[in-house]
Design goal:
Elements (H helix, E strand, L loop, with lengths): L10 H60 L16 H6 L1
Length: 93
């Protein structure tokens, strides 16, 4: 007695399985795409908020500088003159 194993593929069941796989894959892809778009939108909003905060800080800084310009406070500039040689440098030469 010989044992035979015949694979019978029903074309109707096969086409229904392929169609179901395509529909499920399409649905999963749309869900992933919608999730990625939502995350992208959220990150863009956070970036715009950060830029807005930076611009507000710069506006406040400019307003503060303008307020200081209006006042007549004598300010002595402390700049190191690079043309003068340091006495310590002369000793080390």
């Amino acid at each position: 007695m010989s044992f035979t194993f015949d694979i019978v593929i029903n074309p109707i069941i096969f086409s229904v399985c392929v169609l179901a796989g395509v529909i499920v894959g399409f649905g999963v892809g749309r869900v992933k795409l919608a999730k990625n778009r939502a995350i992208n939108r959220q990150l863009e909003n956070e970036l715009m908020d950060a830029h807005n905060e930076t611009l507000e800080a710069q506006r406040a800084y400019v307003a503060l500088e303008r307020g200081l310009e209006d006042q007549s406070i004598p300010v002595i500039s402390i700049k190191v003159n690079s043309t003068k040689e340091n006495p310590k440098e002369k000793a080390s030469k």
